[in-house]
Amino acid sequence: MIGFQTIATTSGLIIGAVCGLIPLMVGIRLRQWKPALIGFLACLFSGFACGFLGGLPMIIIATAVVISYSYIAKDDPFLSRASIDEVDFEESWQDSILRQMSSLGRTTRAATRALIRNKAGFIGFIGVMFFFFMTVFGPSLIDYDGQAHYYDRMKPGAITLFQGPSREFPLGLDYQGRDVLSHMVHGGQKLIITAVQAGIFTTIIAVILGAIAGLIGSIPDRLLTGLSNFILTIPQFPLLVVLASIIEFDQRIFLALLLAVLDWPTLMRAVRAQVLSLRERDYVEAAISLDLGLPHIIVREVLPNMISYIVISLIFSIRGAVYSQVGLVFLGMVPFKEPDWGVMIYMGRQQGALFLPEASSMLLSPILAIALFQLSLVLFTRSLEELFNPRLRAGL
Amino acid sequence: MAENDVVLRVQDLSISYLAPRGRVRAVSRVSFELHKGETLALIGESGCGKSTLGLSLIRLLPVTGRIDSGAMLYQRRDGKIIDIRKLNKNQVRRFRWAECAMVFQGALNSLNPVIRIRDMVYDTARAHGEHNPNKARRRAMDLFQRVRLDFERVFNAYPHQLSGGMRQRVLIALGLLLNPQVVILDEPTTAVDILTQRTIIEVLKSIKDEFDLSIIFISHDLSVAAEMADTVATMYAGEMVEIGPVNEVFYRPHHAYTLGLLEAVPRLSVGAEELSSIPGSPPDLIEPPAGCKFHERCPFVTESCQVELPPFVAVEDTHRAACFESDRVLARALEIHDHERTAR
Amino acid sequence: MMQASHPPQAPSTLSQKLVRALTGYTARTLLQGLLTIWAVITFTFILIRKMPGNPVDIKVEQLMISQNLSYQDAYNRAAGMFDFDPDAPLLEQYLDYMWKLIRGDLGRSITSSGTPVLDQILRYLPWTLFSVGVGLFISFTVGIFLGMAMAYWRGSLFDNVMTAFSSVLFGIPNYITALLIILILGVQLEWFNVGEMLGGVDQDVKAGFNYDYLRSVMKHAFLPVLTYVSATVGGWMLTMKSSTISTLGEEYVTVAHARGLGRWRILTAYVGRNAMLPLVTRLAISIGFVVGGSVIIESIFLYPGLGKLLLQAIGSRDYTTMQGVFLVISVAVVASNMLADMMYGFLDPRIHVSGDR
Hints:
The complex is a heterotrimer of chains A (396), B (344) and C (357).
Chain A: H1 10-29, H2 33-50, H3 52-70, H4 93-117, H5 119-141, H6 180-187, H7 189-216, H8 218-233, H9 236-246, H10 252-279, H11 282-287, H12 293-330, H13 341-350, H14 360-388
Helix pairs in contact in A: 1-2, 1-3, 2-3, 3-4, 4-14, 5-6, 5-14, 7-8, 7-10, 7-12, 8-10, 10-12, 12-13, 12-14, 13-14
Chain B: E1 6-19, E2 22-35, E3 39-43, H1 50-57, E4 65-75, E5 81-83, H2 89-98, E6 100-103, H3 117-127, H4 133-146, H5 151-155, H6 164-176, E7 182-186, H7 194-210, E8 214-219, H8 222-228, E9 231-236, E10 239-245, H9 246-251, H10 256-264, H11 303-307, E11 313-316, E12 319-321, H12 326-343
Parallel strand pairs in B: 3-8, 3-9, 6-7, 7-8
Antiparallel strand pairs in B: 1-2, 1-4, 4-5, 9-10, 10-12, 11-12
Chain C: H1 14-23, H2 25-50, H3 55-67, H4 71-82, H5 90-102, H6 117-152, H7 157-171, H8 174-188, H9 194-197, H10 211-248, H11 251-258, H12 263-301, H13 306-315, H14 319-347, H15 349-352
């Protein structure tokens, strides 16, 4: 669908420009020229990369950053110039939005600062960005070499179609004489998207279930806790393997869903603990009713406090999802189509690439890519940890 | 050391810590002497350096701490004199606890939570050469009785099974295990409630009488010091500002800070009046003010106080203070006393 | 006067000890474990009978096509293979299944006609236990020592290098490490002959407790164990380092130094034992993960363990074996979790007190 791809396209560029107008205009109105320009460029870039998927969230973030530069809380005793009589401590919904946007903006700015400070985290961030660029922009630069080249590339005297790295093919050729580099560039996308989907599903499920368990308590709580304990104790990967052999996966998104179903317990427990601690407060007890209270409480109280933990947990979920996906493909449990890093490893192994020196490139490339991607994610969480744990921060 | 009954002599001791902002002068040029059987109370606010001083006596400063200058001399029971600063690692280990023991606050964290009390006793005994557990056990039994602990129950217990008061008494008993000459007590009554405080003080008093101990009692609590001490020293911002026999310091103080502390103790006998305290807060120890460190909060401050550091001189026989206005301080103290006497 | 929060017990009588044992932490852990095992068994039962892509139905279809049977005949035949009575109500099937399980009957393999699943499992189980157990043990011990060393020499070159090294190792998935070991160390650098090291043991060596056999076993277990260790040691090192650092700051360590205790004693009983506690809780989780990963790793190294058996069964659509192996794997993980939890209760006396928590 146009606008919802995760590959750089010209339509994406247009979408990005349109999205970018919003922070630009807000910034001009608030007379914050530099943030306005940065916001526009950020939207342009993310729209170009991911169409609406990138542009829309970026609107919110960029506008938040712009607002945060000029926002002064009316009831902030240190900054506000309003006299105490003028300050109305009840918030209109517009003020509420402004306040939350500016807080989001401040957090984003703090995040970028923290990113640069923590060396390990910065390296991780670079790694993640590298893969992001490769999977989003790479396909436009390098064409997919999908056809088998049986004879036209074979070197004289060679037994197999494998080839090691050369000037023409920097990553060599695979078992069908195809360019490994092109497979690498095209093959990461679906893997990463499915992993991200799994992470998002996990987060949503965990937050909702955790909130329910914490707020309602008694039977639903016992059930959910028991269920989460159960899921946690069973060895995950064997279960996945067994399930994968029984269930057919026509679409990757179902696999993402399945991964999420096995992954939610850890985050759910943390959310539940947080909700339980909030329950002690009187006003929450008053607001406990499914219709009105639940979403209100989750959004206003639980999430803001836990946002750091949730983000880190999301990244770990993504990491786990990559692990499980590649593992399943590697064992041949899930028949995904090429190009795909996992499939490359699988086919390589089937074709005996494991023991042929000249075939190593076909295996090493996806292996190293996966290893580096996982590593980058782990390192990236370091900088996030430092950001969200004030004790580690050296003063902001 | 000239006199034979001086157990510990500290001369011109200065200690500093390395902090991110700079060097914190925790202790500045402190000198005093501790005699046999004497109980010296070190009184001061948090952060005045009294705990640091205590730690330095057994060379237990953290890595960031450093003894900048001065001497600490200790005389053993057999007369031999030891320079504490010059001990090597092994000697320090043997010096600790056997010659000089430090009793920390009885918080839950002072005792290793995963081993029993008896193992701590055995550990200490073994580390100092006593490998016979029965001897250690008998000694511990004796000591536990003296600190009024039920030996059977406590000896085999884990720290978390004991109350705060019991833990403090265990620490005291442990401190006496090797029969040291000097015992340093760091705020022994701070973490407990008032009833337990009473018990601990009584225990300490009875121990003082029975054993041939010199005690350094670190606290911010003047009233406890009054009960236990023979000599009282007050410290402020790392300096010792007054030292003298307990009665003299209490009834005839010569330093404004000591007077301030005394005035701040609420008195039941004099009826309802405003609680007095010392306004302001302690100075920055990284870049301390010139002159007397107390001058910014002192009601008797004069110009010379702001510029010159008052010398620590004798104002009476064994009583020293570092104050230019000690006469006025003394006058005010006597005034308050007369007022109280007539008010009764 | 004695306000004790946890009054120390006077020496207890036998019956008191018994009551304490039954309500204590150990008993509760045991109970929880058994409950989980029951849940796993029930879950596996439902999985095979009622899931979408129901293996029974698949088998029935297969039989109908390949042997041209009517649905009823095919169903009965399948029921025979799966060893259950298809006409009985579900509850009765379930009870029958449980009853067989308790007696150790896991059914028969569908493909290797008639071999009891249990026998097959028992043949492969020791290999997994051996390799995973050795791997975990080495990883844990090495991790603890290195972690403590890193904490003691914090900020030194050793610490920085080790931290970087363990972060990298920790970030890479275990099967990737396995493949990298083969590709780089084996094929590119030729440190060892990979072909020789696959499989569980050399074929020509006689089984038994003789030197040749044991040596061969060790040689073949080397690569899988190396993989397990590499994948997990980084995590232990980093966790132990941070745990030791916070323990070193505790007051009882300062007091221990003040008491003139020797460095070694402080290191083991005061710092070590306390710093280790958080790691023991992680041990339980780690076991499940390593066993799970063993499925792939055994496949890579052709190591004859339960993981390989599972994959084989899946490949040949041998559902009864699959079911049995999955069950055993799950039970093994749950049991080791229980063990780890109990070990924690043993190590930390604060939990040991009866029934409080």
